[in-house]
Amino acid sequence: MVGLFANHRVTFMDLSSARVIACWFYRVALSRWCLFVCLAGLGGDFASAQLRIVSYNSGGGPRAGSSTILQAIGAENVGGIAKPLDAILLQEQGGVAGDTQAFVNLLNALYPNPGGAPIYARSTIDAASSGAGRPTLIYNTQTLQLISESTTGVVGGSANARQGMRYQLRPVGYDAAADLWIYNNHYKASDTSADADRRWREAQSVRTNADALGDGAHIIYAGDFNIYRSSEKMWSSPGISPPSLTDPGNGQGFDPLNRVGNWHDNNSFRDVHTQSPTTSSRYGGQVTGGMDDRFDWQLVSGELLDGEGVSYIAGSYHALGNNGSHPLNGNIDDPSNTALPGLANRTAVLTALASSSDHLPVVVDYQLPAVLQVVVTPVPSAVLVGSTASVQFAVSNAANVLTVNSADELDYSASGSGAVSGGVAGIDQALGGGNQHQLALTTAVAGPQSGQLSVTSSSQAAANPNFSQSVAYDVFDHANGSFSALADVNSLTLDLGIVAQGSPSLTESLALHNLTATAGFTAQLDLDSLSGIGDTTQLSTDLAAFTGLAAGHSHGFLVELDTTAVGQFAANYTLNLSDQDLLGAQTSALTLNLL
């Protein structure tokens, strides 16, 4: 902890979590310095609550239109979300240091970080391959951490044509409960039974690896599947072990669109086709044939479909540039294509898609978990016995979002212990504005009091799910004004006797006392006003309003008889008293009769 004290205010920085907590100190008039919480800040920087993840077989390194495509992925508004990509799973890469680094350079040129380190970085492992390139990863370092990367499968024989990659990604600001496991694969191409069998073996290798993660893992199966129909064994092989991609088990994959069937050359699936965006070659080696296959995928485990924590955002799954308006077996940049209506350069984007690769990027948005934020209002440093005191606090879902459905809802409960009592529960949606709550503080007995406020989120993988803050304050007995230091005397009659006219004025000394109820914890006494009736000219006092008479102390004053006039005189004075200005302050009155 690093502390800086100034003007009764202190700022602490928790260096391990970059959490800044501002607190205020109040001086108790008769006691010690006491600490009271005012803000429970949020630790660290947090990723935008939604993640935009892309799978793209780029067919090698960038081409002339690649920058246009990457920019369009970030500019396209899908369900109210328009943001740069957070991760892109590439296939057919010559290697991470060559083709993939070239894509990294494009992204960092599109989204520069002035005065800082480049935003985008890449994976570091090259999987083994017998040809047709490798799967790799690029990720936004401001929103994702690459926790681990490893290869899956072997190359050769009847197994894989190339190894797959498994990436463990963690959203910035969250812990391991929010981890995403992404498998990136380029399965064997072509439509012979032998090719389908190779794809099946590769899928079994991936599922074996994924199932070993255990139940509850958040998994994405991305890549170029080269699959023609869901009757293939790589999609499902019931009763056979190891399972295929969509067979039951820990890592069972699901199509977020639930568009299952014979995708090849089928007009019913025209809106989900991803290959090939051109009927004629626009660069050397480009596969042509027009849009007729759903080769490119993001399958997800069931945990990404439950709406809790990290989850698929419904309606976001799409192939860039494909809304089904192009002709079957036609070009993606056919004049009939009405996709990307919100982009001013939509025609250029469609042309870039047709001329930069023989696949379309598959773009999907995912929500992230809620973020618990608690802001505690400073409690009074001191209150009076019997007052209604409380600790007030606001609970909010602080996920950094673009839309309400971009982050999980925040479910939470709050409770008190010690001098803090009661409990509440609530829900705050993303962009919900938060909820105000209060829990009661004990004020029954004078003396120092302490307790704890605890807030816990039950939302899946919520960031900072457990918050607790100590609360300390003092309870004071009420002030007790008296004309005597020995007893509680609230009315005093003083007869000044008989004196001769013209003799010197007669004075008497009196005192107002604040009796002690609890040593060290009795409120100060204020004299708010003094009012008199009767012969106040002849019988007067120099007593005037004051504040802050400490318990066990007295305030002296004089009363005086003016002898210039003849007669019998009487005056009545009312002393309007109160506790010092604390929560629960009460008023009282003393009566002074002069004769």
Textual characterization of the structure:
The chain has 595 residues and is mainly beta. The chain has 4 helices and 35 strands. β5, α1 (66-75) and β6 form a beta-alpha-beta unit. Residues 1-46 have low confidence and may be disordered.
Secondary structure layout plus pairing:
Elements: E1 2-6, E2 9-14, E3 19-27, E4 33-37, E5 50-57, H1 66-75, E6 87-93, H2 96-110, E7 120-122, E8 134-140, E9 144-152, E10 164-171, E11 180-186, H3 193-211, E12 219-224, E13 253-254, E14 296-301, E15 311-312, E16 318-319, H4 346-356, E17 362-367, E18 372-376, E19 382-384, E20 389-397, E21 410-418, E22 420-421, E23 423-428, E24 435-441, E25 447-457, E26 466-476, E27 481-482, E28 491-494, E29 506-514, E30 525-534, E31 539-541, E32 546-549, E33 554-561, E34 571-579, E35 587-594
Parallel strand pairs: 5-6, 11-12, 19-26, 28-35
Antiparallel strand pairs: 1-2, 2-3, 3-4, 5-17, 6-8, 7-8, 9-10, 10-11, 12-14, 13-14, 15-17, 16-17, 18-20, 20-24, 21-23, 21-25, 22-24, 25-26, 27-29, 29-33, 30-32, 30-34, 31-33, 34-35
Write a concise keyword list for the protein shown above.
4 helices, single chain, 6-stranded mixed sheet, 35 strands
